[in-house]
Fold this sequence. Notes:
Strands 13-12-11-16-15-14 form a six-stranded antiparallel sheet, with helices on both faces. A five-stranded antiparallel sheet has the order 2-1-5-4-3. It is of the alpha+beta class and 784 residues long.
Amino acid sequence: xxxxxxRKARPASGAHPAAAPPRKRPSRIYEERYRVLVEDVADxxxxxxxxxxxxxxxxxxxxxxxxxxxxxxxxNYAQFMDAENARIAYDAFNRLFREGGSVAxxxxxxxxxxxxxxxxxxxxxxxxxANGRKTGFRGIARDITDKHLAQKALEDSQACALELSxxxxxxxxxxxxxxxxxxxxxxxxxxxxxxxxLNPAFEKVFGWSFEELQGKIIPFxxxxxxxxxxEGLARLYREKVIHNxxxxxxTKDGRLLDIVIDGAIFYxxxxxxxxxxxxxxxxxxxxRTARINQALYRISQALYQxxxxxxxxxxxxxxxxxxxxxxxxxxxxxxxxxKEFFFRESVFDNQDTGQRMKEIRFPADKGIAGEVYRTGxxxxxxxxSQDPFFFAQVDEKSGYRTRxxxxxxxxxxxxxxxxxxxxxxxxxxFTESDQTLLSALxxxxxxxxxxxxINEALERSLQAVKSLNRAKDRVIHHLSHELKTPLxxxxxxxxxxxxxxxxxxxxxxxxxxxxxxxxxxxxxxxxQYQIEDLLQEKDVVPHRMLSALLDxxxxxxxxxxxxxxxxxxxxEQLRRRIDxxxxxxxxxxxxxxxxxFTEEYLKIVRQQFPHRRVGLDVRLEDAPPVWVPAEVLSxxxxxxxxxxxxxxxxxxxxxxxxxxxxxxxxxxxxxxGTGITPENQRLIIGNFFTAYEPLQYSTRSPYDFKAGGKxxxxxxMQMFAERYGFKIRMNSTRCRFIPTDRDECPGDTGExxxxxxxxxxxxxxxxxxxxxxxxxxSPSPEPA
Length: 784
């Protein structure tokens, strides 16, 4: 461990450790140095002869075996383990003797005097004599049963190493061979913090060779760690040893490693400090693995606390951004019907970027995500400018610059539902460990994402069923009301007819017919009352209802009574009314100029609402002819205009347009009225639905605001559309000042408290209904 400013390299005192050893006896400082390097470590160093008898070992081996030196020296390794482990050790040594090389993964299970079993990791390498013949084995014994005890043994070894003295050249060579064999990086500093020794493991982990750093200060302390490094160095010189000092160091290629440092001061023959012996253990992967395991556990525990799909996806993307240390993370889901990807959730350092991403869709066969979808395998791209799969249109639409991407598939048991994505790694490029982490996370969250999506779809279906049930109730309620008026009129008319007939033909046979008609009318009225009782969940007061119905229908009763004895019978009048509602029985399509027909019919319709202050803006363009019965077309135009006028307050406007559409002629009726709620829009055409409660408009005249018309108009248009091959589509925006059906419009833009100027009403809501006709080339008339 060292810090400070690099100095000009100067020769170390005595022979350099990396140079060939001199022929004369090395100085005591070198003997002391290499003795410290061997005796200061926690791992056991040993030498055995070809029979397996211990000839040389360090104190650490004695501590691992739990025996004194005299109890080990000269004894065979098999005496410290059971027969099975002895056989395994023998086979390993025998194979090593025959094949040469070295091993580093032998496992010994020894038995200590206290009967405790210890598990050792053994490395071994043959010892070759001057004649080239193998004379034994040397290696390292690491106690992996208890890391704490191993660390304590290292501390004790370092303390002992400062007091021991070795003088022989053989000892120096032995220590050097041991250091070169250590798997952890080791270096030796002079007092000026320059390097005097590096072992091969240091070059393997950090990338610098001894030749590059000899006599220099190692440039591997990050700026952010310099203060803590100076503090640790001061502690080392104060306490003479340092253990488990956690910090970070740079490699030659710029990677940042988490390391644990152990070190000690060694002394010259006069007892003065001569330098530092430092060991470093790379714990980057260990810490990363622990962090990943903790994160995956935390995510798995927290995931199901987020019930909705959006909340769950936001939690996942935030965890991905934090774990991978990226600028942004997204969950890209697959729209299987449209064959498109869309960003269901995106979290970026810049929140606006995340919002823009959510508005983007792109083909499922494009981009890096498209390649992941095609292959089902993760894809890591650290330079998008060089990648053939990168789809630049996403960046163009979002205004974001993607430099690097890591995409992994979101797979369930049966299919791929999307892609989990991280973009722009903040600290260097994406690595294989990043890919492994994101893949593990994708495997963890895929099923919960699909479950949340299914729950969301089920919730939408439930709400749709509820809406349909409400619509059904309103339809039945409306039909009940629609039947109420004509049935009451018929009943009263029969009474009037009976009085008139009794004056002309008292006691005639007409009485039987009138009585039969009364009984059947009463049956229908009773059914209607029962239906209303069920819907309203309250009793009907017949007197109040009949009084209201008579008041509301007074005009029609007078007309029917006056016509009852004219040239046309009551039966014919009813038949004619039914024919008008549901179309002529023998209506056949004919070729009609849609523009001219609409222009002429509007002249008639304009006369129907002179009492309303609703503007009529007509925009008629030339369009191809259509094949449809004229009576049907007139009913469609009248019904749509009446519906538009009745939903537009005074001061508003209705626009009628005819144009040649890309798929055929189009008739569009657009109003600036109150609009329709989103729920009602889904139901209003296909389910015979009315926008207002029946009793709200029962006393109003046609074309009055909120008169509502008759619900049969909507059903009739849908029947016409299916019969004659045209389509009806609707787009509506509910007025933002009256967002629900319970809110009411005053009916006059000048009386609206929300508007500063009446003209502003035209910007708050409205409805457009478009009738799309097909080409008129080859009609196939069908009776109505």
